[in-house]
């Protein structure tokens, strides 16, 4: 239901002149403990574009097969409004973000040196906090199949952007999308 709602009423683009947008990728694999258990067949990477205007930060998350500029830059262009300031780490795929049409300014933090750039104050801590919350939800579920990961990310995005009283949200969702349910739409 959350994926359908996000397709019908998208949360992107966001950003613009005032707030800062932070982009980073993270690996979402099962970690074997004490080198025992099954290993993932291939790495699962999730790319996130985070809006820092809100606390906790809200974002757009999607699974990516590759972490190169050809894969990440189109997602960033799709997510951002013109005039956005973007903060990233020093991953090579982000080197030419300043050339994207929607990016006004691109600032970088080099994590090998420090977590917060002492000259500019640039950091990616909100993104790391988002990853922590996303991965904690997966730990509570004791993992999730790769095929279901994007649906889980869609649910998280939906709750971040459309949050509130979940009972009322579900009632509104049924009223807006009655074709997905076998119910008659009540008069509002």
UniProtKB/TrEMBL annotation:
NCBIfam families per the UniProt record, alphabetical: transpos_IS1595
Identification of the protein by name: ISXO2-like transposase domain-containing protein
Parts of the chain that traverse the membrane: none
A Pfam family of this chain: DDE_Tnp_IS1595
Superkingdom classification of source: Eukaryota
PANTHER family named in the record: DDE_TNP_IS1595 DOMAIN-CONTAINING PROTEIN, SI:DKEY-17M8.2
Protein's organism: Acropora cervicornis (Staghorn coral)
InterPro entries: IS1016-like_transposase, Tnp_ISXO2-like
Coiled-coil regions listed in the entry: none
Residue stretches making up the ISXO2-like transposase domain: 13-161
Lineage summary: Eukaryota, Metazoa, Cnidaria, Anthozoa, Hexacorallia
């Amino acid at each position: 239901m959350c994926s359908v709602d996000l397709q019908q009423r998208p949360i992107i683009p966001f950003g613009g002149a005032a707030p800062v947008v932070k982009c980073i990728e993270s690996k979402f694999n099962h970690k074997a403990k004490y080198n025992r258990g099954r290993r993932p067949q291939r790495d699962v990477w999730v790319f996130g574009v985070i809006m820092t205007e809100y606390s906790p930060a809200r974002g757009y998350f999607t699974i990516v097969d590759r972490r190169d500029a050809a894969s990440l830059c189109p997602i960033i262009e799709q997510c951002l409004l013109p005039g956005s300031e973007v903060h990233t780490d020093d991953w090579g795929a982000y080197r030419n973000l300043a050339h994207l049409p929607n990016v006004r300014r691109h600032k970088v933090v080099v994590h090998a040196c420090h977590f917060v750039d002492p000259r500019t104050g640039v950091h990616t801590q909100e993104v790391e906090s988002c990853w922590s919350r996303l991965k904690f939800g997966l730990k509570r579920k004791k993992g999730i199949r790769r095929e279901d990961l994007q649906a889980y990310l869609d649910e998280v995005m939906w709750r971040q952007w459309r949050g509130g009283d979940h009972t009322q949200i579900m009632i509104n969702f049924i009223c807006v999308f009655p074709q997905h349910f076998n119910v008659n739409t009540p008069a509002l």
